[in-house]
């Protein structure tokens, strides 16, 4: 401004910005006003100042005091200049102001400089002017520099045109010219450029002048021509303009609008701004100006600061509906240094400003001046007080919202018994309504108090205490708890709660308590037995309360613990040193416990998923309890924040433990649990000796075998037998069947396709690719009875197949859709039926493998019902995979070690010395008497029994294991009191079972001895399916001899028969097959071969002709006919008791001498004559007759391998009728070598032993020679022809 020091002044009423711009532009143009570069601004109410940079410009504009500025489409602006800032009264000069007429009669007209140039430079307008003035006898002279037109009257026309008439006529001419010709000043730069670039727009009737300094274009010409050119120019300009959308909210633009529009006004006058739609500005104008405007807009937008305030949805709704946003904006406009705009953005309130300070102040004000309160009510249904509360609140809301909305009220969960009142608005109004609600809660809702209990056990059995105290039923809720200390919570109307508290307190103070502890084997089972009423009788007799005290108190056991932290209560009562921690599958908030423990980070409850889950279930009450407990404190890692529980969670306390975030740096833990590793470093592992899980494997001893419940995949099992459950149709649906067949291979599936399997039957296949011995395929038909039958049959077939282990899935619990509890009951009962009393010799392990957690837990619960309480948790080494060896497994088990040393076996028993502790509550005399009665009740049901060494010796290994199992399962105690005696102690029923076991063993020993003696004296045989006689088992032999066959017999192959001793026949139970029985009486030193007929004591020789239909006959004949085509007439069996006794003696001698080679008994042939036959039958073969036929291989008895050799006539000499004889002999060949003609005994093999026989060829012998008469026995005599 200091460069513009040459000022002039003018007065005018209030001028618009556009009018000031036109005036400034006029005085900048020297040719129009005589001025130059200048500034214009207002200096008074109606006074304006124009300051020029150049003094000459000031002087030139003052030469013409009055200036007329023409504005297109508006009235002319008249400006009277003065050098002083004073008000001058002057009339505006008009363009027609008369000059003092000179004597030469001239009239000087002041015309626009550009109009004068137009007349001078354009012929047509000039001629028009000249023509018009000539009509009034005048000539003219143009002086453009002085902006004057001098009109001179022709002196000769003075008479025609007197002075006044002439002047009037001249004025008319110029008025006509002024209406015909117009001047347009184009000040817009882009239009000026367009006029300059398009020279074709000029013509004889239109001239365009350009001012280079100001980029002004002046268009002069006939009115129609000028308007036509300007219209064309406007259309051309519109074609050259562009438009650009800029995304910006109304609130954002409001902050920068003033700055942006000022910039547009001064720098980009051609740019137009429009609000296209919400959040979008539209910039229109020349391309350069549009891009420049967009760049400036974005630049200004970068200066906008924003701050988000997360708000509850209720707060956002209130802000939008109550007009609070506009309220705060108006308030900030007046009170803050910079405007602040507010708008909603999702769940956030967005604050916008150009000042960080203003933004922070505004955010603090909003958060301070809008609040939300939720108050939970209880038991409001059908409550007249709640109805009155709603009326009072509605009245208070109406009063608070007079004039404007200041508070809103909503009811949530109104259909429940515990609705919630939500208040949102300004603090003053919200607090007024909150006071009304809290006053209602104090007057009409439940009162809560606690009464400490002397012992934690009282909390667990508080109902018994109440019954003893005679407390009547009332509206007070009584809830005992253990933690953080034993107490009882009383909730209800205030007067009733306080009255009950006083009476209970007085009653508890009058009571005496005493701990009664009973020790001994089975004591816990005695007092837990359902059929005993001992404790109830003592209670009724002495009017006391008897509370059992667990080894692990429930108030510790039921605390839900996280695996990474443990918390001890400072008020905890007496407890054992060990703490049992149970790992439960599930979410923390779903557990039943008195205390929940959860981690948190930076004292924020919802910093972990566990904390968030607790809050979701408990609701706002837990959040309020947390805030009260926390206060202004920040927990350090490891510190515990105790927060009161809520009814929704069902706990009395929540312990929140401060944690810190650990950045793991353990590269060597890639395949292990990092949490487990850290715990192993920081936690004393002795604390977790009793750590158990709901999914631990369960092992139960059942009659000498182990029954396993396994949570896992059956395809990972390697037992001897695998059970596959299928419908024999669908092998593709995902499940156990598909998994097993995938592993077994397509050849197994092919065997199943189309298989016809009867109801309750098992279809067995090889294992294929499955690592087992056999696969049993079954269909449960979704029938519990069928499943039970199948489970029993699986046990039976596993035993018959000599399988040591079998794996069974949950039949029909998956794809079958049966209830897991039903399936568990059927399978476990079926297994139990199959195992009990079966005396299994092979099957030792049954594994029920369950893939789903709910199914496993159902089986576990059902196993407890069927087999009793599971054994204590103990890590043991057990066989878990059939043939795959042993693996370490944590399981519920009692393992029966296999040992023949009874003392060692009994020492391996767990300590069964147990105790049952009770807390007896009552009046002091009654308490003492009740304790004595409890002790006596247990002692009266106990007994002892002494076991002697001789009794132990009669036990088999299986019976020892059964004894071990019974002592364990019946909770008995066994002690060795001397080297040959043991004492069993415990409950009478258990001791009696052990006595019965030993007595049964003694009876079995006597029976076994009798059976063995009888078996050596008498042999019963049954004719097998192939016609071969078989001995029956020893116990069956005993039954047959005693005639005790009413229940039938079972042969050595497991086939059951009914017996008719009169006919000596047996009938197969399943097939109906009939077969023969026979009885052989043995000598004291000789047992008859089973294929012989019975012989009496005085009968030492029998020759029995064989029945040609018998298998025995057919077998001997078939072997003979292999090499001899002759006809067999008869075959006789030789039963020479004396010869056979000598033969069996020699056989035993060779077996003992030759080791693995043994006696090498062979069936060989020896041809003979009719004369020699009877001698051989009576006296055996005699080597002294050697040489009658040949002695090529020594002087012994010769036997042929093939009957054809012995059938030659020289050996089997034909009788007169042509018949021949040949013996089939049993020959003991033992070690043999090639014979020589001069041999009378076999050569020495190894000193002092000799070979047992000689042959004709070592490679393929056809002849055996023996040198010992007892080394052969004539078994059969064949007569042939």
UniProtKB/TrEMBL annotation:
Which cellular component terms (GO) are annotated to the entry? cytoplasm; nucleus
Gene Ontology molecular-function annotations: NAD+ poly-ADP-ribosyltransferase activity; NAD+-protein mono-ADP-ribosyltransferase activity; transcription corepressor activity
Q: Which InterPro entries match?
A: Macro_dom (IPR002589), Macro_dom-like (IPR043472), Mono-ARTD/PARP (IPR052056), Nucleotide-bd_a/b_plait_sf (IPR012677), PARP14_RPM_1 (IPR057051), Poly(ADP-ribose)pol_cat_dom (IPR012317)
Q: Where is the composition biased (Low complexity)?
A: 881-896
The residues the entry assigns to the signal sequence are none
UniProt-listed Enzyme Commission number(s): 2.4.2.-
Q: Which UniProt keywords apply?
A: Glycosyltransferase, NAD, Nucleus, Transferase
Q: Where is the Macro domain?
A: 694-867
| Occurrences of domain PARP catalytic (ranges) | 1088-1281
Give compartment(s): Nucleus
Biological process, per Gene Ontology: negative regulation of gene expression; protein poly-ADP-ribosylation
Q: Mostly located where?
A: nucleus
Similarity comment text for this entry: Belongs to the ARTD/PARP family.
Please identify the protein, giving its name as recorded. Answer: Poly [ADP-ribose] polymerase
The top of its lineage is:
Eukaryota, Metazoa, Chordata, Craniata, Vertebrata
């Amino acid at each position: 401004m200091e460069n513009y020091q040459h000022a002039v002044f003018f007065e005018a009423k209030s001028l618009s910005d556009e009018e000031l711009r036109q005036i400034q532009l006029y005085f900048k143009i020297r040719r129009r006003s005589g001025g130059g570069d200048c500034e214009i601004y207002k200096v008074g109410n109606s006074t304006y100042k124009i300051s020029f940079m150049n003094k000459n410009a000031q002087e030139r504009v003052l030469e013409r005091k009055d200036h007329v500025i023409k504005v297109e489409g508006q009235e002319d602006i008249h400006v009277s200049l003065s050098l002083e800032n004073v008000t001058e009264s002057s009339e505006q000069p008009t363009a027609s102001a008369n000059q003092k007429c000179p004597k030469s009669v001239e009239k000087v007209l002041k015309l626009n400089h550009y109009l004068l140039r137009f007349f001078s430079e354009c012929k047509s307008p000039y001629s028009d002017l000249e023509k018009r003035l000539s009509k009034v006898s005048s000539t003219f002279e143009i002086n453009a520099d002085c902006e004057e037109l001098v009109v001179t009257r022709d002196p000769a026309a003075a008479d025609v045109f007197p002075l006044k008439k002439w002047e009037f006529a001249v004025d008319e001419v110029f008025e006509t010219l002024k209406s015909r010709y117009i001047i347009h000043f184009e000040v817009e730069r882009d239009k000026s450029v367009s006029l300059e670039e398009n020279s074709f727009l000029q013509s004889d009737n239109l001239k365009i002048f350009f001012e280079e300094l100001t980029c002004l274009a002046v268009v002069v010409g006939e009115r129609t021509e000028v308007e036509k050119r300007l219209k064309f120019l406007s259309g051309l300009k519109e074609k050259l303009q562009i438009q650009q959308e800029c995304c910006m909210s109304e609130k954002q633009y409001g902050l920068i609008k003033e700055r942006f529009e000022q910039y547009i006004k001064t720098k980009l006058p051609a740019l137009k701004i429009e609000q296209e739609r919400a959040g979008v500005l539209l910039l229109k104008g020349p391309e350069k100006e549009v891009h420049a405007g967009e760049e400036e807009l974005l630049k200004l937008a970068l200066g906008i600061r924003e701050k988000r305030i997360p708000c509850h949805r209720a707060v956002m709704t209130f802000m939008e509906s109550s007009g609070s946003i506009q309220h705060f904006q108006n308030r900030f406009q007046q009170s803050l240094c910079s405007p602040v705009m507010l708008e909603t953005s999702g769940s956030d309130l967005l604050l916008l400003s150009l000042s960080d300070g203003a933004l922070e102040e505004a955010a603090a004000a909003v958060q301070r001046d809008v609040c939300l309160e939720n108050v939970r009510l209880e038991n409001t249904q059908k409550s007249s007080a709640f109805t009155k509360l709603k009326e009072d609140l509605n009245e208070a809301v109406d009063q608070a919202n007079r004039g404007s909305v200041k508070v809103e009220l909503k009811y949530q969960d109104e259909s429940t018994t515990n609705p919630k009142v939500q208040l949102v608005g300004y603090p003053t109004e919200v607090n007024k309504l909150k006071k009304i609600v809290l006053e209602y809660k104090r007057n009409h809702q439940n009162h809560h108090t606690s009464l400490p209990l002397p012992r934690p056990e009282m909390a667990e059995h508080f109902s018994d205490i109440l019954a003893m105290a005679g407390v009547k039923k009332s509206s007070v809720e009584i809830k005992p708890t253990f933690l953080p200390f034993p107490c009882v919570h009383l909730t209800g109307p205030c007067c009733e709660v306080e009255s009950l508290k006083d009476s209970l307190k007085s009653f508890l103070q009058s009571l005496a308590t005493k701990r009664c502890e009973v020790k001994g084997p089975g004591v816990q089972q005695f007092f837990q037995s359902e059929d005993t009423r001992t404790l109830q009788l003592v209670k009724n007799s002495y009017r006391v309360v008897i509370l059992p005290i667990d080894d692990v108190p429930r108030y510790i056991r039921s605390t839900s613990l996280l695996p990474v932290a443990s918390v001890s209560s400072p008020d905890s009562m007496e407890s054992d040193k060990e703490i049992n921690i149970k790992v439960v599958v599930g979410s923390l908030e779903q557990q039943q416990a008195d205390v929940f423990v959860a981690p948190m980070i930076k004292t924020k409850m919802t910093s972990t998923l566990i904390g968030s889950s607790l809050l979701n279930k408990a609701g706002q009450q837990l959040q309020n309890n947390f805030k009260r407990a926390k206060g202004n404190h920040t927990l350090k890692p490891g510190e515990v924040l105790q927060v009161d529980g809520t009814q929704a969670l069902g706990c009395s306390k929540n312990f929140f433990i401060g944690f810190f975030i650990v950045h793991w740096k353990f590269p060597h833990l890639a395949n292990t649990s990092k949490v487990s590793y850290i715990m192993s470093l920081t936690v004393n592992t002795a604390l977790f000796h009793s750590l158990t899980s709901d999914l631990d494997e369960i092992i139960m001893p059942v009659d000498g075998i182990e029954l396993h419940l396994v949570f896992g995949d059956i395809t990972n099992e390697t037992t001897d037998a695998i059970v596959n459950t299928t419908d024999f149709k669908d092998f593709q649906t995902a499940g156990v069947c598909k998994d097993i067949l995938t592993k077994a291979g397509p050849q197994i599936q092919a065997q199943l396709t189309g298989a016809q399997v009867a109801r309750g039957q098992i279809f067995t296949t090889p294992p294929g690719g499955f690592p087992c011995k056999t696969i049993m395929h079954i269909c449960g038909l979704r029938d519990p009875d069928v499943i039970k039958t199948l489970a029993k049959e699986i046990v039976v077939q596993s035993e018959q197949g000599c399988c040591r282990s079998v794996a069974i899935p949950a039949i029909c619990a998956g794809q079958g859709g049966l209830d897991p509890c039903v399936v568990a009951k059927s399978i476990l009962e079926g297994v139990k039926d199959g195992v009990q009393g079966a005396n299994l010799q092979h099957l030792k392990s049954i594994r029920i493998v369950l893939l789903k957690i709910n199914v496993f837990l159902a089986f576990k619960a059902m196993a407890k019902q069927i087999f009793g309480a599971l054994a204590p948790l103990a890590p043991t080494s057990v066989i878990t995979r059939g043939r795959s060896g042993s693996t370490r497994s944590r399981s519920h088990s009692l393992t029966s070690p296999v040992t023949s040393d009874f003392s060692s076996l009994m020492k391996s028993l767990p300590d069964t010395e147990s105790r049952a502790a009770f807390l007896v509550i009552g009046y002091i005399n009654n308490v003492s008497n009740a304790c004595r009665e409890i002790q006596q009740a247990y002692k009266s049901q106990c007994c002892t029994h002494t076991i002697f060494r001789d009794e132990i010796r009669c036990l088999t290994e299986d019976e020892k294991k059964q004894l071990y199992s019974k002592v364990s399962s019946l909770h008995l105690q066994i002690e060795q009191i001397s080297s040959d005696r043991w004492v069993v102690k415990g409950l009478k029923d258990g001791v009696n079972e052990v006595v019965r076991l030993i007595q049964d063993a003694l009876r079995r020993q006597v029976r076994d001895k009798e059976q063995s003696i009888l078996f050596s004296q008498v042999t019963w045989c049954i004719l097998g399916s192939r016609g071969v006689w078989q001995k029956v088992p020893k116990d069956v032999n005993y039954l047959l001899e005693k005639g005790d066959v009413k229940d039938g017999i079972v042969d050595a192959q497991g086939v059951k028969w009914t017996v008719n001793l009169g006919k000596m026949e047996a009938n197969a139970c399943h097939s109906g097959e009939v077969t023969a029985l026979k009885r052989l009486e043995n000598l004291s030193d000789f047992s008859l071969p089973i294929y012989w007929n019975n012989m009496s004591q005085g009968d030492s020789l029998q020759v029995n002709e064989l029945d040609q239909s018998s298998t025995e006959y057919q077998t001997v004949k078939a072997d003979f006919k292999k090499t001899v085509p002759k006809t067999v007439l008869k075959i006789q069996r030789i039963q020479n008791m004396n010869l056979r006794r000598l033969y069996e003696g020699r056989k035993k001698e060779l077996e003992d001498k030759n080791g693995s080679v043994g006696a090498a008994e062979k069936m060989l042939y020896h041809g003979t004559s009719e004369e020699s036959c009877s001698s051989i039958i009576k006296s055996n073969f005699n080597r002294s007759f050697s040489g009658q036929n040949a002695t090529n291989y020594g002087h012994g008895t010769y036997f042929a391998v093939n009957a054809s050799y012995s059938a030659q006539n020289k050996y089997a000499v034909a009788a007169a009728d042509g018949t021949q004889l040949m013996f089939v002999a049993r020959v003991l060949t033992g070690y043999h070598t090639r014979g020589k003609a001069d041999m009378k005994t076999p050569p020495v093999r190894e000193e002092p032993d000799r070979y047992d026989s000689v042959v004709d060829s070592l490679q393929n012998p056809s002849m055996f020679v023996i040198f010992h008469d007892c080394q052969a026995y004539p078994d059969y005599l064949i007569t042939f022809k």
